UniProtKB/TrEMBL annotation, chain A:
SUPFAM superfamilies: ACP-like. It comes from Streptomyces griseoaurantiacus M045. Keywords: Phosphopantetheine, Phosphoprotein. The keyword Phosphoprotein applies. Pfam families: PP-binding (PF00550). Residues 8-89 form the Carrier domain. This is Acyl carrier protein. InterPro entries: ACP-like_sf, PP-bd_ACP, Ppantetheine_attach_site.
Automatic annotation (TrEMBL), chain B:
It comes from Streptomyces griseoaurantiacus. This is Ketosynthase chain-length factor. Belongs to the thiolase-like superfamily. Beta-ketoacyl-ACP synthases family. Keywords: Acyltransferase, Transferase. GO terms for biological process: fatty acid biosynthetic process.
């Protein structure tokens, strides 16, 4: 259970994933500020988010919920991802 | 434009990504000088194929031409198309400020090969590491329609969009489709084709083409209309033309460079080159009829020039059938012997070369072709100055499509 904290995906990591998988360059501080706005505000579309879902599933060896790529905002997405990680797969 | 005047499409901009040059100036300079870019195939993983020579695009930096967000989700063929589209818009001096209505701009591309390199990479991940390692952009990047979609998304163009999948001749058919969209009411069409078939999977797909040259000496590998014709050399690249409704283009002060005056297409079956004679002749006659041109009006022919004895003979005879005695007098050229055949991309490159030839009053030569064995006035060696008002561009595909396109210099249309 102590692993919960180490398994947490941060806003900074999400910004890096957006760049790596979708080519969307976003400053982590800016993503932090706009964490409740839509992914589209940063230029990330649903296929881009699907790529991030795939990358996280590979990285943590778990299956995220089926509608993970339908999250509208970074905050919703991180909550869902970190909730899944915390649930311990 | 007055109420009674017909809508027609004029070329106002050209963007080129060719083995002989990136950008319209570099391309035309090389084309007019008869420069050849054919060389050994150097792309990774392509060394063991029986095809030894190709026209590779060098000096193209995708990152300098296309944003990262598009690069990660697209194949090289779409990089070429997006870059060429951007260059065509810039060449036409059509900026975002001119495009106040996104629904007035459409996009049409043709593709014969699709995103083979991207697709291969993702399929290798699938079989090496498993399904979770395949990225989501595999769903769109390989697809023939990818370039049309990405050009429209990138530019915010919301007018009629289309993709022509009709063999190599699709490059000309796309221009005709763009012309029809202009006539039907859309003011601006971004039209072209680009291909990137020089990657292992795509090369393997071409192995069955008996018409591919196996010659390893670049200067001998693609010599249509000569006794040493031994097939064609594949290439990558392509071109995009900006078509605008003549009245709209004139109103914004654009340069009305050429008119898409006529087009016709026929089909005569895969690799049945003897039959392409009749099909190509019909296409030429149809295109001239739509353009309101007589055979004698044709000032230059950009030949398909497939490069096998049977196909070359069929093309020469088709010209004789359709143009009569004029077929022996009209200058014929095939600048694609310097670039190779970039499938659909070649037909649009030829259309671009035709517009530039009319503007410069110069018929570009056919590199590496000297000893012509057909009853044609093939322009070999060096470019030939000539007053050019009407150009006939021909294209045939390996699967049996034949197309002819008539371009006229400036804004002269059939009803003027």
């Amino acid at each position: 259970m102590t692993e919960q904290t180490t398994l947490k995906v941060t806003v900074r990591e999400l910004a890096a994933l957006m760049k790596q998988t979708a080519g969307v360059a976003v400053d982590p501080a800016e993503l932090e500020r706009g964490v409740d706005s839509g992914f589209d505000a940063f230029g990330l579309d649903s296929l881009g988010l699907l790529g991030i879902v795939g990358e996280l599933e590979k990285r943590y060896g778990l299956a995220l919920p089926e509608d993970a790529e339908k999250c509208k905002s970074p905050a919703d997405f991180l909550k869902m991802v970190n909730g899944s990680l915390a649930a311990g797969v | 434009m007055t109420a009674g005047e017909k809508r027609r499409a004029v070329v106002t901009g050209i963007g080129v990504v060719a083995p002989t040059g990136v950008g319209v100036e570099a391309y035309w300079k090389a084309t007019a000088e008869g420069v050849t870019a054919l060389g050994p195939i150097t792309r990774e993983g392509c060394g063991h194929f029986p095809m030894r020579v190709a026209g590779e695009v060098r000096g193209f930096d995708p990152q300098a031409m296309v944003e990262d967000t598009f690069l990660v989700q697209t194949d090289r063929f779409s990089h070429f198309a997006m870059a060429a589209a951007q260059m065509a818009l810039a060449d036409a001096r059509l900026g975002r400020g001119d495009l106040t209505d996104p629904f007035s701009v459409g996009v049409v591309t043709a593709a014969g090969s699709g995103g083979g390199e991207f697709g291969q990479r993702e399929l290798q991940k699938l079989w090496a590491n498993g399904p979770k390692h395949v990225g989501p952009y595999q769903s769109i990047a390989w697809f023939y329609a990818a370039s049309t979609g990405q050009i429209s998304i990138r530019g915010g163009f919301k007018g009629p969009c289309g993709v022509v999948a009709s063999d190599e001749a699709g490059g000309l058919d796309a221009l005709a489709h763009g012309d029809r969209e202009v006539r039907r009411g859309t003011d601006t069409l971004v039209v072209g084709a680009a291909e990137a078939p020089l990657a292992p999977y795509s090369m393997a797909c071409q192995l069955g083409y008996a018409e591919l040259s196996r010659e390893s000496e670049p200067d001998r590998a693609y010599r249509p209309f000569t006794p040493s014709a031994c097939g064609f050399v594949p290439a990558e690249g392509g071109a995009v033309l900006l078509l605008e409704e003549a009245g709209t283009a004139r109103a914004r002060g654009a340069d009305l460079r050429a008119t898409v005056a006529g087009h016709a297409a026929t089909f005569t079956g895969a690799s049945q080159w003897e039959k392409s004679r009749e099909g190509l002749a019909h296409a030429i006659e149809g295109a001239l009829a739509q353009a309101g041109c007589r055979p004698g009006d044709v000032d230059v022919v950009f030949a398909d020039a497939l490069g096998t004895p049977e196909a070359d003979r069929a093309e020469a005879l088709a010209l004789a059938d359709a143009l009569g005695p004029h077929a022996r007098r009209v200058p014929v050229t095939a600048p694609k012997t310097g670039t190779g055949r970039a499938y659909c991309g070649s037909a649009v490159l030829d259309a671009a070369a035709a517009v530039l030839a009319m503007e410069h009053g110069l018929v570009p030569p056919t590199p590496n072709v000297f000893d012509v064995c057909h009853d044609l006035d093939l322009v070999a060696g060096r470019a030939r100055p000539a007053e050019l008002r009407t150009a006939l561009v021909l294209s045939r595909g390996l699967m049996g499509s034949n197309s002819a396109l008539v371009l006229r210099h400036g804004a002269t249309g059939s009803d003027e």
